[in-house]
Write a structure and sequence with these properties.
It catalyses: guanosine(46) in tRNA + S-adenosyl-L-methionine = N(7)-methylguanosine(46) in tRNA + S-adenosyl-L-homocysteine. The chain is α+β, with helices and mostly antiparallel strands. It has three domains: 96 residues; 179 residues, Vaccinia Virus protein VP39 (Rossmann fold); 85 residues, no CATH class. 26% of the residues lie in helices and 33% in strands. The chain is built from ten helices and 20 strands. The strands form two sheets. Strands 1, 2, 3, 4, 5, 6, 7, 16, 17, 18, 19 and 20 form a twelve-stranded antiparallel sheet that branches. Strands 8-11-10-9-12-13-15-14 form an eight-stranded mixed sheet, sandwiched between helices. Strand 16 and strand 17 form a beta hairpin. The protein is globular, with a radius of gyration of 23 Å.
C-alpha cells in the first residue's frame, strides 16, 4: 500500500488545498488514531496517520475508503506530504509515475451496477481473476461477450486495467468487490459462464470460501438455462466441499474433471503443474429459468441523531441477529457535531466495512454505495435501533 514516514507534520488549518486535493477536516479516536478527510476530483477518501513507537508518523490511505486505483491514493498522499511540510524519512511513492492521474474506463464502482448497468449482451463473470491471464484471453477470444471481472487485490486490478488499455480490449468491466455480495443484484438469467479459478482454499476457515449453498443458489439464478458455474482448484478439500454443496441441490447436472488442460493457464496453475499437483474441475450446469428480481437500491439514514450523546455513550460493541451482525469498532471525533464510527456489518460469512459519518445530526455511509442486500438491510435496521436507543 502507498505510504510514507515522516518525523514532522505541520499542524493544518482546515479546509486547505494542495494540488488537486482538498483536505477538509481531521478526527481523532481515544485509541490515538487520526484520520484526515480528503477529497480529490469529487471523490472522498480518508488518510490514516499513525504515531510510531520510535517517534514520527506513518501516513497511508485508510483501507475502508482506499480507491481501487493506487495512482489516485499516491497523488493524494503526495499532496498531503506537501501541504503538511512533511520531513519524509521513507516513502514507497513514485512521484514521476503519477503526475497525470486518470480513471480507467474499464473500472466501475459498485453503484454503477446498482443503478446504471444495462444488459445488452450475454455476460460472463470471473471471480478472483488474479494475474488476469484467463480473463484477458477469454475476452479477446469472445469479443461479443461482456466480461465482468471481480477482484479485491488492487495490484492485480491495476495490471488488468493496464493490459485492457495496451491491448485495446473493450469488453471487460472490472469491479473491486466481494463476489458473494455482487451476485445478489445481477439480473436473473443473463450470465453464460461463471469462472472461479484457484480461489483461496480457506481450509481452516471454510466460512470464508466463495462457495456456499447461498452462493450456488445466486449463481443458478443469474445463469441462463445451460449456463455454467465452473470451479478450478488444486485443493482436494475445496473440490470435495464444493462438490458436496452442489450435491445438496434437489436437482443438479454436475461434471467433474481431473487434470484437464485449458487453452490458457494462470501463474498459480503453472506453479502447481511444475509441482505435479492434481487440478480439479467441477462444472455445474443450470437447468432452470429464474424469476426476475427488482433492481437493488442503496441504504440510507433519514433519522436525526445527537452526536453529543453518541460521544458520551459509545463503546466497542458487537450486536448479532439471525445470520447477521453489526460491529461498532471505533469512534473518531472531529468536533462537537461531527465524527465517524468505523463499523463492519452484514452476513456472518461475508460482510461490509465502512464508516458512519455523523455531521450536524445526520448519518450517512462512507463510502456511500452500501447496497440493500438482504443481510445489509437487516444490519441497517439494527443500526437504526442502536442510534434510537442512544439518542432518545
Amino acid at each position: 500500500m502507498p505510504n510514507f514516514h515522516s518525523n514532522h507534520l505541520k499542524t493544518l488549518t482546515y479546509p486547505c488545498h494542495a494540488g488537486e486535493t482538498t483536505f477538509l477536516w481531521e478526527a481523532h479516536s481515544h485509541r490515538g488514531n487520526k484520520l484526515v478527510m480528503a477529497s480529490s476530483k469529487g471523490e472522498p477518501l480518508l488518510i490514516r496517520i499513525q504515531s510510531k513507537k520510535e517517534g514520527g508518523f506513518l501516513i497511508k490511505g485508510d483501507k475502508v475508503t482506499r480507491p481501487t486505483q493506487a495512482s489516485f491514493l499516491q497523488k493524494v498522499l503526495m499532496d498531503f506530504r506537501d501541504v503538511s511540510e512533511a520531513n519524509v524519512t521513507y516513502s514507497n511513492i513514485e512521484p514521476k509515475k503519477f503526475l497525470h492521474v486518470k480513471t480507467s474506463p474499464y473500472l466501475k464502482e459498485i453503484d454503477f451496477f446498482a443503478h446504471d448497468f444495462k444488459v445488452e449482451r450475454e455476460i460472463w463473470v470471473e471471480i478472483g481473476f488474479g494475474s488476469g491471464r484467463h480473463l484477458l484471453h477469454q475476452a479477446k477470444k469472445n469479443p461479443h461477450i461482456q466480461f465482468i471481472g471481480l477482484e479485491i487485490h488492487k495490484p492485480s486490478i491495476e495490471q488488468v486495467l493496464k493490459q485492457c488499455e495496451l491491448q485495446g480490449i473493450e469488453n471487460i468491466l472490472v469491479v473491486d468487490y466481494d463476489a458473494r455480495l455482487f451476485m445478489e443484484f445481477l439480473p436473473s438469467n443473463v450470465v453464460g459462464r461463471i469462472f472461479v479459478h484457484f480461489p483461496v482454499p480457506w481450509d481452516k476457515k471454510p466460512h470464508r470460501r466463495v462457495f456456499s449453498a447461498a452462493f450456488i443458489e445466486e449463481a443458478l439464478r443469474v445463469l441462463h438455462v445451460n449456463g455454467t458455474l465452473e470451479l478450478r482448484t488444486d485443493s482436494a478439500l475445496y473440490f470435495e466441499f464444493s462438490f458436496m454443496q452442489m450435491m445438496h441441490l434437489s436437482q443438479a447436472e454436475v461434471h467433474v474433471k481431473k487434470n484437464a488442460a485449458l487453452e490458457i493457464t494462470s501463474k498459480y496453475e503453472d506453479r502447481w503443474l511444475k509441482m505435479e499437483k492434481d487440478i480439479y474441475d467441477v462444472i455445474l450446469t443450470n437447468e432452470r429459468e429464474s424469476e426476475a428480481i427488482d433492481k437493488m437500491g442503496t441504504l440510507f439514514f433519514d433519522e436525526k441523531v445527537d452526536f453529543s450523546k453518541i460521544r458520551k455513550q459509545f463503546k466497542e460493541e458487537l450486536l448479532r441477529g439471525d445470520g447477521f451482525f453489526v460491529h461498532f469498532e471505533e469512534l473518531f471525533e472531529s468536533n462537537d457535531e461531527r465524527g465517524l464510527i468505523r463499523i463492519s456489518f452484514g452476513a456472518n460469512e461475508r460482510n461490509e466495512k465502512c464508516y458512519l459519518l455523523i455531521e450536524q445530526g445526520k448519518v450517512s455511509y462512507l463510502p456511500d454505495a452500501i447496497l440493500a442486500t438482504k443481510s445489509n438491510q437487516l444490519a441497517h435496521s439494527l443500526m437504526k435501533e442502536w442510534f434510537h436507543g442512544i439518542c432518545h
